[in-house]
UniProtKB/TrEMBL annotation:
Domain of life: Eukaryota
Transcription recorded as keyword: yes
Assigned keywords, A-Z: Bromodomain, Chromatin regulator, DNA-binding, Methyltransferase, S-adenosyl-L-methionine, Transcription, Transcription regulation, Transferase
GO cellular component: histone methyltransferase complex
Residue ranges occupied by any Post-SET domain in the UniProt entry: 100-116
Protein name per the record: SET domain-containing protein
Keyword DNA repair in annotation: no
GO biological process: methylation; positive regulation of DNA-templated transcription
Domain SET: 1-92
Length: 116
């Protein structure tokens, strides 16, 4: 285990509204989906996990785990991580049509060119 993705748990139906609010205020948006119903919003009350970048060849992976009936998002190491090495994981965004594609800038040999 590397770190838990911490923040405020909100209903998934509120994410678009919050994202528009943050965009209007010029605030970067950091959200991570737990399941179809809940999302962790780390934008205002998150920890350093929100700054972990995407990579198509990551050194970490994320999992939703259940602890005492509560779901938590945890980042785990895929391999030994060396001092000074950037932490990355695959965001695994849902596939979108060509007009909604988000370009990937990870620069790895196996880059898929898009996050979604």
């Amino acid at each position: 285990m590397v770190i838990e993705y911490a923040g405020t748990v909100i209903r998934a139906v509120l994410t678009d509204k919050r994202e528009k609010y943050y965009d209007g205020k010029g605030i970067g948006c950091y959200m991570f989906r737990i399941d179809d119903f809940d999302v962790v919003d780390a934008t205002m009350q998150g920890n350093a996990a929100r700054f972990i970048n995407h990579s198509c060849e990551p050194n970490c992976y994320s999992r939703v785990i259940n602890v005492d009936g509560r779901k938590h998002i945890v980042i785990f190491a895929l391999r030994k991580i060396y001092r000074g090495e950037e932490l990355t994981y695959d965001y695994k965004f849902p596939i979108e049509d060509e007009n909604s594609k988000l370009h990937c800038n990870c620069g790895t040999r196996r880059c898929r060119r898009f996050l979604n």
